[in-house]
Amino acid sequence: MAKTAISLTVNGEKVEALVEPRTLLIHFLREQLSLTGAHIGCETSHCGACTVDMDGQSVKSCTVFAVQADGADLRTIEGLAAPDGTLHALQNAFREWHGLQCGFCTPGMIMRAWRLLQENPHPSEAEIRFGIAGNLCRCTGYQNIVHAISAAAATIAGASKEAAE
After folding, report:
1. Are residues 74 and 104 in the same domain?
2. How many domains does the chain have?
3. Fewer CB within 10 Å, N or C, the chain?
4. Whole-angstrom distance, CA of residue 28 vs CA of residue 18
């Protein structure tokens, strides 16, 4: 099958590649770029384990073709921590508040929560629950996930307030 050239930015780095038109974004990220944080769960967009951020929106990368991401700006869980390895406030909060159990949903859940906090820096519990509704935790760890997202929002807000002073 003929391959198509694509060019995109992934976690701040320009990437150029040849892909088959039928290659799903999740497979491109995992197999060609070795970014294995996003997980392949249901492959039908129901679970959200494959969630990444594309051009300012959460997308389930199992339902997006890599060619559709041509020209896009993508952020994956690997691009959330600082270059020196310092965890993002969300990653740290998930660790501190036990927002993970088996960990399978965690990368997608964190990426969805990251976009949610970009859109609404001070969400209520109900807004968090609504905001992550498209991501499933099979271990039913939602209570701790919600607490983790709330704690991260407070940490980020505190850091923003300190930076402004």
Report:
1. no
2. 2
3. C
4. 10
Q: What are phi and psi of 136, to 5 degrees?
A: -105, 140
Q: What would the mean pLDDT of 109-121 be, rounded to a whole number?
A: 98
Query: What pLDDT is stored for residue 140 in this prediction?
Result: 77
Asked if 72 and 42 sit in the same domain, the reply is yes
CB 132 within 8 A of CB 116: yes
Greatest alpha-carbon span in the chain: 57
Is the per-residue pLDDT at 22 higher than 90? yes
- As a whole number of angstroms, the distance between CA 135 and CA 120 comes to 18
Q: Among 43, 60, 79, give the residue marking a domain's end.
A: 79
Is the overall model pTM greater than 0.85, yes or no?
yes
Do both 71 and 14 map to the same domain?
A: yes
